[in-house]
Amino acid sequence: MKKSSQKKIAKAIAIIIAAMIFFLLGSATERAFFRQQIQAAEEAFILQTDGYTKANVSISLADLSFSSDCYRLTMTITNDQAFSIFRGIQKIVERPLTHDLIKDIIDGFEIKPIAARIEKAEDGLYYARLYLQKGGKVLALDSRPSDIAGISVRTGIPVYVKTEILQKNGTYIC
To answer: Is the whole model's pTM more than 0.70, yes or no?
Structure first.
Protein backbone atom coordinates (compact mmCIF):
# COMPACT_ATOMS: atom_id res chain seq x y z
CA MET A 1 0.00 0.00 0.00
CA LYS A 2 1.34 3.48 -0.87
CA LYS A 3 2.37 5.85 1.90
CA SER A 4 -0.29 8.37 0.82
CA SER A 5 -2.97 5.68 1.28
CA GLN A 6 -1.57 4.73 4.67
CA LYS A 7 -1.59 8.39 5.75
CA LYS A 8 -5.20 8.83 4.57
CA ILE A 9 -6.29 5.72 6.45
CA ALA A 10 -4.43 6.76 9.62
CA LYS A 11 -5.96 10.24 9.43
CA ALA A 12 -9.45 8.81 8.92
CA ILE A 13 -9.06 6.49 11.90
CA ALA A 14 -7.72 9.31 14.10
CA ILE A 15 -10.67 11.54 13.15
CA ILE A 16 -13.14 8.77 13.90
CA ILE A 17 -11.60 8.05 17.32
CA ALA A 18 -11.43 11.74 18.28
CA ALA A 19 -14.96 12.31 17.07
CA MET A 20 -16.24 9.36 19.10
CA ILE A 21 -14.64 10.73 22.27
CA PHE A 22 -16.04 14.23 21.74
CA PHE A 23 -19.38 12.78 20.71
CA LEU A 24 -19.65 11.01 24.05
CA LEU A 25 -18.45 14.00 26.09
CA GLY A 26 -19.50 17.04 24.06
CA SER A 27 -22.56 19.23 23.53
CA ALA A 28 -25.19 18.72 20.83
CA THR A 29 -23.41 21.23 18.56
CA GLU A 30 -20.10 19.41 18.99
CA ARG A 31 -21.81 16.07 18.32
CA ALA A 32 -23.32 17.39 15.07
CA PHE A 33 -19.93 18.72 13.94
CA PHE A 34 -18.19 15.44 14.67
CA ARG A 35 -20.98 13.45 13.03
CA GLN A 36 -20.09 15.29 9.80
CA GLN A 37 -16.38 14.60 10.38
CA ILE A 38 -17.05 10.91 10.91
CA GLN A 39 -19.11 10.73 7.71
CA ALA A 40 -16.36 12.43 5.67
CA ALA A 41 -13.71 10.13 7.17
CA GLU A 42 -15.82 7.03 6.45
CA GLU A 43 -16.27 8.07 2.82
CA ALA A 44 -12.54 8.71 2.41
CA PHE A 45 -11.72 5.36 4.01
CA ILE A 46 -14.28 3.37 1.97
CA LEU A 47 -13.59 4.84 -1.44
CA GLN A 48 -9.85 4.95 -1.90
CA THR A 49 -8.89 6.28 -5.32
CA ASP A 50 -5.21 5.34 -5.31
CA GLY A 51 -4.57 3.29 -8.44
CA TYR A 52 -7.62 4.81 -10.17
CA THR A 53 -7.90 7.66 -12.65
CA LYS A 54 -10.88 10.01 -12.80
CA ALA A 55 -12.50 9.74 -16.23
CA ASN A 56 -14.97 11.65 -18.36
CA VAL A 57 -17.89 9.85 -19.99
CA SER A 58 -18.72 10.35 -23.66
CA ILE A 59 -20.77 8.58 -26.29
CA SER A 60 -20.43 8.32 -30.06
CA LEU A 61 -23.06 6.19 -31.79
CA ALA A 62 -22.81 2.89 -29.87
CA ASP A 63 -19.30 3.49 -28.52
CA LEU A 64 -19.04 4.40 -24.86
CA SER A 65 -15.76 6.06 -23.86
CA PHE A 66 -14.10 6.79 -20.54
CA SER A 67 -11.31 9.33 -21.12
CA SER A 68 -8.65 10.81 -18.91
CA ASP A 69 -5.26 12.35 -19.44
CA CYS A 70 -3.86 10.66 -22.55
CA TYR A 71 -5.96 7.48 -22.54
CA ARG A 72 -9.42 6.58 -23.75
CA LEU A 73 -11.13 3.30 -22.88
CA THR A 74 -13.84 2.53 -25.45
CA MET A 75 -16.43 -0.22 -25.44
CA THR A 76 -19.33 -1.01 -27.73
CA ILE A 77 -22.76 -0.98 -26.12
CA THR A 78 -26.32 -1.44 -27.37
CA ASN A 79 -28.19 1.36 -29.11
CA ASP A 80 -30.66 1.55 -26.19
CA GLN A 81 -27.84 2.03 -23.69
CA ALA A 82 -26.15 4.61 -25.92
CA PHE A 83 -29.45 6.50 -26.32
CA SER A 84 -29.96 6.61 -22.56
CA ILE A 85 -26.42 7.84 -21.88
CA PHE A 86 -26.72 10.45 -24.65
CA ARG A 87 -29.98 11.74 -23.13
CA GLY A 88 -28.30 11.92 -19.72
CA ILE A 89 -25.33 13.88 -21.08
CA GLN A 90 -27.68 16.27 -22.92
CA LYS A 91 -29.97 16.57 -19.83
CA ILE A 92 -32.98 15.50 -21.91
CA VAL A 93 -35.86 14.29 -19.75
CA GLU A 94 -39.04 13.30 -21.55
CA ARG A 95 -40.53 9.91 -20.76
CA PRO A 96 -38.18 8.33 -18.19
CA LEU A 97 -35.74 5.64 -19.20
CA THR A 98 -34.26 3.10 -16.76
CA HIS A 99 -31.36 5.38 -15.71
CA ASP A 100 -33.85 8.22 -15.12
CA LEU A 101 -35.90 5.94 -12.86
CA ILE A 102 -32.79 4.93 -10.93
CA LYS A 103 -31.91 8.60 -10.40
CA ASP A 104 -35.49 9.28 -9.22
CA ILE A 105 -35.21 6.39 -6.72
CA ILE A 106 -31.86 7.71 -5.47
CA ASP A 107 -33.34 11.20 -5.04
CA GLY A 108 -36.67 10.03 -3.64
CA PHE A 109 -35.11 7.92 -0.91
CA GLU A 110 -32.42 10.52 -0.18
CA ILE A 111 -29.60 8.17 -1.10
CA LYS A 112 -26.26 9.84 -1.69
CA PRO A 113 -24.42 8.59 -4.78
CA ILE A 114 -20.69 8.70 -3.98
CA ALA A 115 -18.83 7.48 -7.08
CA ALA A 116 -18.54 4.77 -9.70
CA ARG A 117 -15.48 2.73 -10.60
CA ILE A 118 -14.44 0.35 -13.35
CA GLU A 119 -12.47 -2.11 -11.26
CA LYS A 120 -11.75 -5.19 -13.35
CA ALA A 121 -11.31 -6.40 -16.92
CA GLU A 122 -11.57 -10.12 -17.52
CA ASP A 123 -12.28 -12.23 -20.62
CA GLY A 124 -13.24 -9.16 -22.65
CA LEU A 125 -15.72 -7.90 -20.03
CA TYR A 126 -15.44 -4.87 -17.77
CA TYR A 127 -16.71 -4.96 -14.20
CA ALA A 128 -17.79 -1.83 -12.38
CA ARG A 129 -19.24 -0.81 -9.03
CA LEU A 130 -21.62 1.97 -8.11
CA TYR A 131 -21.12 3.34 -4.57
CA LEU A 132 -24.18 4.67 -2.75
CA GLN A 133 -24.62 5.88 0.82
CA LYS A 134 -27.70 6.06 3.02
CA GLY A 135 -27.08 7.16 6.58
CA GLY A 136 -24.12 5.24 7.94
CA LYS A 137 -24.32 2.47 5.33
CA VAL A 138 -22.37 2.37 2.08
CA LEU A 139 -23.49 0.01 -0.64
CA ALA A 140 -21.18 -1.12 -3.45
CA LEU A 141 -23.32 -2.43 -6.30
CA ASP A 142 -21.93 -4.68 -9.01
CA SER A 143 -22.70 -2.82 -12.24
CA ARG A 144 -22.04 -2.70 -15.95
CA PRO A 145 -19.93 0.22 -17.20
CA SER A 146 -22.85 1.40 -19.33
CA ASP A 147 -25.04 1.60 -16.22
CA ILE A 148 -22.51 3.55 -14.17
CA ALA A 149 -22.14 5.90 -17.16
CA GLY A 150 -25.91 6.41 -17.44
CA ILE A 151 -26.26 7.04 -13.71
CA SER A 152 -23.14 9.21 -13.35
CA VAL A 153 -24.15 11.63 -16.13
CA ARG A 154 -27.50 12.12 -14.36
CA THR A 155 -26.22 12.42 -10.78
CA GLY A 156 -22.88 14.14 -11.40
CA ILE A 157 -20.85 11.57 -9.47
CA PRO A 158 -17.24 11.00 -10.51
CA VAL A 159 -16.27 7.92 -12.51
CA TYR A 160 -12.91 6.29 -11.85
CA VAL A 161 -11.18 3.70 -14.01
CA LYS A 162 -8.45 1.49 -12.61
CA THR A 163 -5.32 3.10 -14.07
CA GLU A 164 -3.88 -0.27 -15.07
CA ILE A 165 -7.02 -1.06 -17.12
CA LEU A 166 -7.02 2.38 -18.74
CA GLN A 167 -3.38 2.06 -19.80
CA LYS A 168 -3.52 -1.61 -20.82
CA ASN A 169 -6.88 -1.67 -22.62
CA GLY A 170 -7.28 1.98 -23.55
CA THR A 171 -6.02 3.88 -26.56
CA TYR A 172 -3.20 6.40 -26.15
CA ILE A 173 -4.59 9.66 -27.57
CA CYS A 174 -1.86 12.29 -26.92
So the answer is: yes
